Amino acid sequence: MAEGKLRNITYAQAIRTALREELKRDQRVLLFGEDVGYYGGVYGATVGLQKEFGEARVRDTPISEMAIAGVAVGAALAGYRPVAEIMYEDFLAHASDAIVNNAAKWRYMSGEQFTLPIVFRSPGGGGAGYAAQHSQSLEAWFTHIPGLKVVAPGLPRDARGLLKAAIRDDNPVVFLEHKAHYTYKGEVPVSEEVIPLGIAEVRRPGRDATVVSWSKTLTYALEAAEGLAREGIDAEVLDPRTLQPLDMAAILESVGKTGHLIVAHEAVGFGGFGAEIVAQVVERGLDMLKRPPVRVAAPFVPIPYSEPLETFVIPQVADIIAGVRRCVGAGP
Amino acid sequence: MPMKDRERLLHFYEDMLRIRFFEEKVRDVLYPQRLFRGSSHLAIGQEAVAVGAVHALAADDYVISTHRGHGHAIAKGMDLRRTFAEVMGRKTGCGRGKGGSMHLADASLNFIGENPVVGSNTPMAAGLALAAKLDGNGRVAAAFMGEGALNTGAFHEAANLAALWALPVLFLCENNLYAISVPLDKSSALQDLERRAEAYGIPGQRVNGMRVMEVYDAVSRAAQATREHSFPCFLVFDTYRFEGHHTSDKQTYRTEEEALEEFRRRDPIHILEFEMIDDHTVPIPRTIEYRDRIRAEVDAAFEAALEEPWPAPEAALTGVYAEGGE
Question: Is the CB of A110 less than 8 angstroms away from the CB of B107?
Fold first, then answer.
């Protein structure tokens, strides 16, 4: 594909670009949440949007996550395309009645009488020293719910292109950003780009092992692959980008080539989304696997505060390198 | 009584009978014959609220209901056969058999549906009202709830937001005195429930929920104010559920005498019939005619729904996601 002009922008700027473009494109797109209007979001992802599009469409809300998510459901049922921001993924616990019980199920329960085009944006993840109640990675909560789509972009280009697709999608989408990643920079096309949901991307081709990773951990996986290359292990890094729907065909194709599967994510390993990927590869492609798959994930503990503790718990580049080595049988 | 009012009253009477006979059919035929699954939440005794309130709204106003919502659905105009078919899990039900008694909905009537997660429909009503306000179409969003819903965080958040954003929401609270088994005096610190509205700067009013014209008049005034000023209103209707929380409720929390005595004293349909006979709106034999005619209509809808096909089992796998988008 011929590349147009690119610019180097942050993950937060990429999110803002998508929101701005979609607010401009479609009058029925609304944006609301805590501090998203005048203040521009606690991570600056919505700076300037209220000024540009007005207080009717870009709204500050009270600290009322149940209302934020529930209002989004109601507005969608009446024909709008709301983007609701929940300030921390942890607070999705408050909002999850509207997301899980209402948004995900209203279409099904009503015999397809309604569509619910909603995006629930929320930053998760650790590494910023916010401790146990402001650092979780909860994608597995939502990938488990039929009726929801779940997106977890790792690169600014995908954050922009996938958010645009999520806003245009006729289904509720849980769009999980990473709070320690908002200042991460990457190349993003200047011209409009909508990246369809459900298509994985090979970030780094390789012959020896498939590392599946998303969100901020993806960038660690890419770094790990460079390190592994120096010791002669050629790792392929595959970014599913969307967790629901999941591009299993791309994962199976890659594993078919490499014979080794490593899934790396920041969430707790037990019951995490990596388990789903491993299970599907085992069910559908066991004969392709030369060695048992490996999950690189957080241990079964809350995210701790102190830096050495948090860094120990959250998978780092070295953990991924060790996981790949273990998978391919290359020493400790 | 002017002709117009008389016709309106008779129309309300018919709809109240329609709801009553529908629910009696659920109680007396569907339940013992196991023609529905799970449980069904009857609003026998609360018909005056459903009929008076819904008829005070414009046809395109949004209504969002609760688990106890057969009456709201029927008052909004839902087809009885399609409603029975859904309660019995048939393919031709409003939800294609995927929702059942607790998930009735009809998009064509702006009956957004029942939401049986208590309190959960109130933020949705605020969202519907936000859409109406932005569209400038003059619609209001009416959310029914029981008094139990007032104790949820969702209601608190929705009421505050609706007032803060000046949204045209009608919060319609049916105080039937019981949240499953827990009576009002054990669930709410404040017994004058309409005073809850003060906390949000919303007008609050208590209404006799057993007299359909009082409900109609109160909701008409509230809807007009809500529409004109784009601001929420909160109404509490004193009513009573003569049946259990659902069809399998053993009702150990109250005496049989209490329910019977309440029924004898406060049945909204009897009250309306006495009033109509008293003021010569309708002579006694005509009420019998009305009852027979509506009962036959409900019976016919039920018999027709009984013949409706079951969904193909694999239909369970479709309708989860909408195809495409913009």
Answer: yes
Query: Any idea where the domains of chain B sit in the sequence?
Result: 3-317
Identical fold between A8-189 and A201-325: yes
Evaluate if pTM is beyond 0.95: yes
Tell me the CATH class for B3-317.
alpha beta
Quick: pLDDT tens for A219-247. 999 999 999 999 999 999 999 999 999 99
Query: What CATH architecture does domain A201-325 belong to?
Result: 3-Layer(aba) Sandwich (3.40)
A106 touches chain B (CB under 8 A): yes
Give the pairing of strands A294-298 and A261-268: parallel
Tokens of B108: 């064509």
Q: Which helix (H) or strand (E) holds A123?
A: strand A119-124
CB contact under 8 A, A75 and B131: yes
Q: For chain A, give every domain's residue range.
A: 8-189, 201-325
Assigned superfamily of A8-189: Thiamin diphosphate (ThDP)-binding fold, Pyr/PP domains (3.40.50.970)
Q: Kindly report the nearest CA distance between residue A172 and chain B, in angstroms.
A: 9
Whether A135 and chain B come into contact, CB under 8 Å, resolves to no
Please write the tens of the pLDDT for every residue from B102-150: 999 999 999 999 999 999 999 999 999 999 999 999 999 999 999 999 9
**CA pair distance B317, B311, nearest whole angstrom:** 11
Catalytic option among A65, A85, A139, A266: A65
- CA distance to partner chain B, nearest, from residue A52 (Å): 17
Asked whether B194 and B234 are in contact (CB, 8 A), the reply is yes
Set of chain B residues whose Cβ sits within 8 Å of the Cβ of A59: 165
> How far apart (Å, rounded) are the C-alpha atoms in residues B36 and B295?
20
